[in-house]
Design brief:
The structure is a single chain. With 107 residues, the protein is α+β, with helices and mostly antiparallel strands. It is built from two helices and three strands, in the order αβββα. It has a three-stranded antiparallel sheet. β1 and β2 form a beta hairpin. It is rod-shaped and about 70 Å long.
Length: 107
């Protein structure tokens, strides 16, 4: 390996770090929302899959103990849907940053 190859490799690594920093910033700024139970539960999440807020409508809170299990299921469903939406946004962002390259593992 000669010095020009080493310089090219350093430049590529620098570009990769810059792209990673841009992606991290974009994921932090991306917000997705999901609901379950006809809107009784809503979740906001960023692109890094960090839950930013969870809202529970008062009608979702019942008096009987069986309602707790339903509430738990609705929360799980909303969080999982928000996660899927965050994944879709991330996949789209990576595709656009890579210029449509079909790289293994990014499908």
């Amino acid at each position: 390996m000669n010095f020009s190859d080493l310089g090219k490799m350093k430049e590529m690594m620098s570009q990769a770090r810059e792209m990673q920093a841009q992606m991290e910033q974009k994921l932090s700024a991306t917000i997705v929302e999901a609901e379950s139970g006809g809107g009784m539960i809503s979740v906001r999440m960023n692109g890094k899959k960090e839950v930013l807020s969870l809202k529970i409508e008062p009608t979702a809170l019942g008096a009987s103990s069986g309602d707790v299990e339903l509430l738990e299921d609705l929360i799980i469903a909303a969080v999982n849907e928000a996660g899927r939406r965050a994944d879709a946004v991330m996949k789209s962002s990576v595709s656009s940053m890579m210029g449509g390259l079909n790289l293994p593992g990014l499908e």
